């Protein structure tokens, strides 16, 4: 455990221009075939005779991980049976979009997945489709369904029987005599799940998304002005059509109490608390503060905002950044935040960090008492959010990072030199300007890495750390 004494201060800093990508990375087609093969192996090892992967618009990541297909208006279902070509069920409007799949799958129209009132007469009943895909007496009766959540014994006496998929799918399977189990942990368990560890191509995709997302947030913070509406401020983030994993946020004044509300026509005023975030596939970037030039612009009762909230928070996050690394137990990171921010005033109630993928939250190995070890290939969201529920509002650094051992770092630098250059510049900024001492395996993906400006009308005033 890092025990160096850290002091923090608010200072005028220069945030470098780390640049934007000119080359978009991608996951090769053969990787999807390999993922399907490995998923089949894991499902067999878990004792499943068949595995179904269910997805809808919000809960798409497990299916997209295997096929690149993400439902747009409808739902979808992938059926994996040993010795059979994978079967992908989609609705009316999804059939054309299945061409995005690089892996070999049999595409089947299942119109129940279509929107209400659309045609329903051209697809076979679900039981017929399931049997044709191989779910019958010949393949066995133990069926796993991966939805978007798995459950723990504290939630149910039989959590493996709680399934996150529509009841009609589960009903038909059980009527066919199948034993149905929750298999979502195959993908999302934080230490061994298929999506917990990423290869170099997937990490490069996440860095690409994070670069655009963090630059958009950065542009907002440096350019927002009193009198703009929240809609005006959101436009500063320069959304370019890259898919989002959750809705963009710009909240100001009394609306910040809503937490997850979308931007509105409310005019932002000097002195407002303000919060913004942008989450593109594989990333999420967020900051909160006040639309003032300095502490004098705050109400008299909270002019100690930096000393009381921001400085202790930044000190905690600096230690978190300096300690995270391959082999570190998640519980150690939890204890760092608990030691610094455990007072109820700070209101840190969620996991101080979690895995991120195409979806904003996969799961987290970072919780009280966790012995789960962080591994090379993990994409992790720095996500320590104080919810004081007081006039002090909040402060936060929410950015993406990855852990990469020497071999993975070498592969990254060779295959994606432009992205690797940005990563190295960010590491240098964190070390030389912010005073944060990083392990070699810690790769920052944000264009405002650990940059924390509390006063958004003076965005060059930010926190930095020094040894004492």
What's a quick, concise take on this entry?
The protein has 468 residues and is α+β, with helices and mostly antiparallel strands.
The general outline is: globular
Number of helical stretches of at least 4 residues: 11
**Strand-and-helix sequence, N→C?**
EHEHEEEHEHEHHHEEEHHEEEHHEE
Structural class comes to alpha+beta
Nearest-angstrom radius of gyration? 23 Å
Explain the overall architecture.
With 468 residues, the chain is α+β, with helices and mostly antiparallel strands. The chain has 2 domains: 6-20 and 195-467, Alpha-Beta Complex (Creatine Amidinohydrolase), CATH 3.90.230; 47-182, 3-Layer(aba) Sandwich (Creatine Amidinohydrolase, Chain A, domain 1). It is built from 11 helices and 15 strands. It has helices at 29-45, 61-67, 126-132, 167-175, 185-188, 200-223, 230-235, 305-323, 330-341, 406-415, 417-432, and strands at 6-12, 50-55, 76-80, 87-90, 106-109, 142-146, 179-182, 249-252, 273-278, 285-290, 354-355, 379-383, 396-403, 442-444, 461-467. Strands 8, 9, 10, 11, 12, 13 and 14 form a 7-stranded antiparallel sheet that branches. Strands 5-4-3-2-6-7 form a 6-stranded mixed sheet, sandwiched between helices. A two-stranded antiparallel sheet has the order 1-15. The radius of gyration is 23 Å and the shape is globular. The chain starts with 5 loop residues before the first strand and ends with a strand. The model has no long low-confidence stretch (mean pLDDT 96).
């Amino acid at each position: 455990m890092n025990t160096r004494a850290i002091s923090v201060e608010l200072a005028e800093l220069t945030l470098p221009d780390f640049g934007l990508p000119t080359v978009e990375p991608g996951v090769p087609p053969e990787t999807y075939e390999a993922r399907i093969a490995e998923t089949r192996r894991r499902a067999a090892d878990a004792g499943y005779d068949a595995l179904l992967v269910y997805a809808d618009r919000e809960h798409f990541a497990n299916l997209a991980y295997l096929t690149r297909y993400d439902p747009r208006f409808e739902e979808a279902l992938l059926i994996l049976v040993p010795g059979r070509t994978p079967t992908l069920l989609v609705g009316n409007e999804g059939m054309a979009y299945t061409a995005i799949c690089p892996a070999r799958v049999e595409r089947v129209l299942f119109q129940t997945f279509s929107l209400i009132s659309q045609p329903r007469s051209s697809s076979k009943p679900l039981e017929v489709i399931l049997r044709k895909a191989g779910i019958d007496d010949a393949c066995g009766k133990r069926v796993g369904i991966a939805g978007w959540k798995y459950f723990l014994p504290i939630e149910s006496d039989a959590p493996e029987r709680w399934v996150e998929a529509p009841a009609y799918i589960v009903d038909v399977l059980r009527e066919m005599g199948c034993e149905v189990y929750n298999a979502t942990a195959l993908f999302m368990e934080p230490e061994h799940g298929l999506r917990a560890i990423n290869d170099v191509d997937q990490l490069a995709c996440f860095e690409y998304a994070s670069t655009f997302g963090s630059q958009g947030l950065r542009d907002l913070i440096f350019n927002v002005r009193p009198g703009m509406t929240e809609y005006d401020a959101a436009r500063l983030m320069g959304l370019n059509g890259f898919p989002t994993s959750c809705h963009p946020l710009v909240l100001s004044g009394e609306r910040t109490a809503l937490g997850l509300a979308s931007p509105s026509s409310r005019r932002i005023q000097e002195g407002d608390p303000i919060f913004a975030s942008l989450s593109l596939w594989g990333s999420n970037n967020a900051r909160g503060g006040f639309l003032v030039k300095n502490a004098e612009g705050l109400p008299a009762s909270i002019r100690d905002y930096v000393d009381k909230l921001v400085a202790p928070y930044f000190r905690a996050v600096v230690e978190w950044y300096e300690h995270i690394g391959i082999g570190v137990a998640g519980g150690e990171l939890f204890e760092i935040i608990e030691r610094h921010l455990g007072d109820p005033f700070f209101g840190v109630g969620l996991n101080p960090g979690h895995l991120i993928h195409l979806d904003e939250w996969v799961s987290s190995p970072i919780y009280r008492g966790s012995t789960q070890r962080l591994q090379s290939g993990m994409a992790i969201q720095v996500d320590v959010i104080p919810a004081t529920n007081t006039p002090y509002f909040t402060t936060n650094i929410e950015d993406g990072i990855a852990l990469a051992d020497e071999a993975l770092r070498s592969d990254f630098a060779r295959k994606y030199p432009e992205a690797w250059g940005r990563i190295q510049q960010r590491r240098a900024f964190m070390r030389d300007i912010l005073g944060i001492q990083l392990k070699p395996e810690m790769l920052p993906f944000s264009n405002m890495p650990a940059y924390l400006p509390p006063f958004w009308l003076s965005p060059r005033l930010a926190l930095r750390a020094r040894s004492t």
